[in-house]
Amino acid sequence: NGRCVVAVDGPSGSGKSTVSRRLASALDAQYLDTGAMYRAVTWAVLRYGVDLSDLEGITKVAGELDLAIGTDPTAPHVRADGVDVDADIRGPEVTAAVSAVAAVPAVRQLLVGQQRALIESAGRIVVEGRDIGAVVAPDADLKVYLTASADARARRRSLETTASVDDTHADLLRRDTLDSTRAADPLQQAADAVVLDTTAMGIDEAVARLRAMVTA
Ligand code: C5P
C-alpha cells in the first residue's frame, strides 16, 4: 500500500463524487472532495452576511474559517467553525453562490495549499475537483477527466435534489460556464488525463475501469 494519488476532475453531475468515493474504498485510500471545501467557505460567506462582490470580505472569511474536512470515503463529513455542514453545503443557497466564491484567487490559493497538505499527509488518496490534475496535484499517478452529456448530468443531479430536471439543467450550464471561463484555475482537462464519458456507462463499470488503470 504505497503512495498513490488519483486526480478526478470534471463538471457537476459527471458521476465524479460517487466514482471517486467508490474508487477510494476499492483502493483502500482516502478521499478528498475539494468541491466541499469551496462549498464550506461559501456557507461561511453567506452565514456571516458577506456580499458576493466583496472580494476582501470573502478572502477574510476564508482565512479565518476553521475547516475540518473528513477524508474517509465512506463518511466524508465536513465541519466549518465547529458546525456540521454536510447538509447545508449541498443546499440551493450555497450551490447558487459557490462558483462566485471559487473564482476569488485568494480563496483558491488558500484552499489549494490546504489540499496539497492533506494529499501529502494521506499519501494514498483519490482527490476530486476541477483543477486537481492541472494545478493541485500535477504529478498525480493517475489523472482522470470524467464527463457526461448535459442531459445525463442534469437527470442525475435532479434525482439527488428536489429541483426539476429543467432547473437543474439550467443551473449546471450556468456553473459549467462560470467554472470553465474564470481567470483563476478554470475547469480544465489536464493534457495527460484519461477521459471517461459516463453518459452511457454505469458507476460499476467506471470504477472497474479506473481501478484497472491504477493497478496496471
Ligand atoms: O464538485 P462540486 O459541485 O461540489 O463543486 C462546487 C463548486 O466548487 C464548483 O462549481 C466550482 O465552482 C468549485 N470548485 C472549484 N475547484 C475545485 C472544486 C470545486 O472551483 N477543485
TrEMBL record:
Cytidylate kinase domain span: 6-212
GO biological process per UniProt: nucleobase-containing small molecule interconversion; pyrimidine nucleotide metabolic process
Places the protein is found: Cytoplasm
Assigned EC number: 2.7.4.25
Protein name: Cytidylate kinase
Organism domain of life: Bacteria
SUPFAM superfamilies named among the record's database cross-references: P-loop containing nucleoside triphosphate hydrolases
Family to which the UniProt record says this protein belongs: Belongs to the cytidylate kinase family. Type 1 subfamily.
GO molecular function, one term: dCMP kinase activity
Key words, A-Z: ATP-binding, Cytoplasm, Kinase, Nucleotide-binding, Transferase
Assigned GO CC terms: cytosol
Record-linked Pfam families: Cytidylate_kin
Entry binding sites for ATP: G10, P11, S12, G13, S14, G15, K16, S17, T18
Record gene name: cmk
UniProt enzyme class: transferase
Swiss-Prot/TrEMBL catalytic activity: CMP + ATP = CDP + ADP; dCMP + ATP = dCDP + ADP
